[in-house]
C-alpha cells in the first residue's frame, strides 16, 4: 500500500486493495500431531522490521513505474490500449522537475 501511495495511488474503503503477510518460518508451522503442544517462537523486534518494510515499499514503487514505462500498446477483443508516449512523458516530467 505504501509503495502504491508513493506513485500517487490511494486506498479507500471498497478500493479492492489487500495487504497480505505470511511467514515461511518452520517454527510457525502447526503440524497435525502438534496442535496441543506449546511452541517456542523467535520473533524480531518491531525496529528490525523497518528495513524489510522499506524494501517492499521501494520494490512496489519500482514495479509500478516499470509497468507504466515499459508497457507496449496492446489490442485484444476489439479494444486497443496505447502505451504511454515515452518522449512526451519525459517532457512533462522535466517540465515539472520530477526528472532532470
Could you walk me through the main structural features you see in this protein, from its secondary elements to its overall organization?
It is built from three helices and two strands; from the N terminus they run ααββα. The chain has 100 residues and is mostly helical. It has a domain at 45-100. A two-stranded antiparallel ribbon has the order 1-2. It is elongated. The chain starts with a helix and ends in a 5-residue tail after the last helix.
Key descriptive features of the protein:
39% helix; 3 helices; elongated; 6% strand; two-stranded antiparallel sheet; mainly alpha
Summarize the structure.
The protein has helices at 2-6, 46-69, 86-95, and strands spanning 74-76, 79-81. It is mainly α and 100 residues long.
Report low-confidence residues grouped into runs of 5 or more.
none
Mean pLDDT: 82
Spatial sequence of strands, sheet with the most strands: 1-2
Q: How big a fraction of the residues is strand?
A: 5-15%
The secondary structure category is mainly alpha
The count of strands amounts to: 2
Helix coverage percent of residues? 25-40%
Give the N-to-C terminal Cα separation. Answer: 28 Å
Q: How many separate helices?
A: 3
How large is the radius of gyration? 21 Å
**Cα shape:** elongated
Give the biggest sheet.
2 strands, antiparallel
What pattern of helices and strands is seen along the backbone? HHEEH
